[in-house]
Amino acid sequence: MNFKEIARRGETGPLMEAGEFLMKRVAAGALRLQKSHEIRWDGKTLLNLDDAMADRLWQAGRELLLGTGIFSMNSRRVIELSAEEVDEALRFVPQHLAMGAGKEAVTVRHRGIEDPRKPFVFSGPFNADTSEEMFVHLNEAFAQERLIDSLLFPGYLKTLDGQMIRPTSALSSRAAMLYGQWSREAVRRAGRPDMPITGHAVMALNEIACTNEAWGLRATDPRAMVLISELQVDDVTMTRLAYYQAYGCPIYLAFTPLVGGYGGDPAGTAIVAVASFIAAAALGGEVVHIGPQHLKFKQQTNAHSLFLASLSNQAVARNSRIIATTSHTTSGRPGNGEEGAQYPREFSALALCAVSGGSNVSGPRPAEPLGFNNVSPLMARLFAEVAHAAAGLSRGTAAGIVEKLYERYKDRIDLEHSPRGLPFEELYDLKTLRPSAEHREVYERVKEELAALGVPL
Amino acid sequence: MANAQEIYARMTRAIEEYDSDAAAAAAREAVAAGLNLLEAVEKGFADPIRRLGEAFDRMEIFLPQLMLGSEAMKAGMAVLEEAIQSAGGTLVNKGVVVIGTVEGDIHDIGKTVVAALLQANGYQVHDLGVEVPAGRFIEAAQSQEADIIAMSALLSTTMLYQRDVIEMLGNKGLRERFFTLVGGAPVSQKWAEEIGADGYARGAYEAVALLDARKEARGR
Prior knowledge:
Chain A is built from 14 helices and 21 strands. Chain A is an alpha/beta fold. In chain B, helix 1 runs antiparallel to helix 4. The longest helix of chain B is centred in the middle third of the chain and has 24 residues. Chain B is elongated, with a radius of gyration of 18 Å.
């Protein structure tokens, strides 16, 4: 089934209200399938080791999608899919995907469980609020990290010329164009002019204005779109999909299943997650990004979300050829001293769960950045090193390390009381774009700590 | 005819089983039995819905159950409210809230959780949905005789519409009439202060606590 047919069903499918779709189709369906397929969380496992449950989860997620379809929020129509159509979409989903150009041409691949091949690393400011004056410096510092395969969401321009940017305004079109120019300028300054830049300018439809082969984002740069929780799309996302598919960009499609939401507990939400993986593939997603949200903790390294990420990625890795990547957001924020160590402990725990489960990696970023530029390229280096080291680790070994790391940060995952961190400009020397000695100390110390725990760094 | 304790037990069970029809039926029974209806509200509905809110906080139940429980209470309360008003009485609620996600923003779940939890905690809630223009917040607040306007924004680029609602209230000379509450992922206390909002809540539990504290302070 092609995109034209998907778009047609978005105008002609069964009509219903969003509440009815979410409660009667998604919530009731997930609850029923959780019981019939015995998808359970035991309340303590962080990294799933149960292959049979991962396979049952795949079946439950597929059945859920067949029962729900995908809700088009603006038309209030359901895009329903038959079993044959879902299977066809899964058969033709790409197993590997090229992006970037020239010397920076890279390929992201579907990975298997405990796959010894290194995961693809998407990293960058990851949509943390980014100030105008720091935008190029910050992205250059990320791009100079050679383990990062693609720059990820080069930032979130909240203001331009001191003015807040209203979506769809003329200011937002100008911001989108600058976003394209500045992102390209940053990778050029880092000596990687053809490095793929994943992500958009978050300017609603005006983001399209950042597209320009000469100075902005190109056909070789993946474009990111996000499904709305749960299993919903809106006109803006569908319009972006139509445009970027026609333009020839790799399609990076994200979804954010909500733990504690319509899927219920982590096991029920995992069913929604697998249904969303398949839905994203059916919509034309070529790299599918899972970014679980948590109703209470609002980050992704709590016990529920670790389990959810490991189980749902394993279900996808074992039963499909979908190229998966996992978002990493934390309670801790990049900083110095012992306070700064929580951030890498958290993203390392999740990276071990994701990579051993067959995923690539996206991130890291604090879930609640404080102020502008609250991210660190040096921590992205460590993130990439951990993700690479995790490739080939057995899940049993990874699970043991994850448990130890979790013990070290679990008492400070409340966002209000988690380490506050520092902005990029206080962690780096802006003239040399090198991390400060204090920030390097955190990197060295946590790296040693991780190695001592058994991460083969 | 069932005695008061039996009817309260049925009302409680209806909430615990998320059954709107049973909640309305038990409420009708309370009216027919001539019970003290204000006491029936407290013992039959308020206690179980409070427990439901606490269970949600501990993540023992989840959003669908919280919403269904709130809906069941709403169905039962409609019956009791009508009977109380017919008898010339009034049902006290903690406050009337209009809530919505601001213009240009289609994110629904965060706002829905706040609405359900406020309802479960005794507020009368009017959920305006998503992409709510500034003028509609104000019209709804006036028509529903609300005292609280709660605005959610999930995007950095849409949160400035929270500012517009507050500015428009000022332009219409209505600023002092409503308590304005803002929230959403990119929103902060600093932003709330910058735009002159009366309150900021980082999540649903904090929204309930903040409004309860306001209610208590005003009640003194």
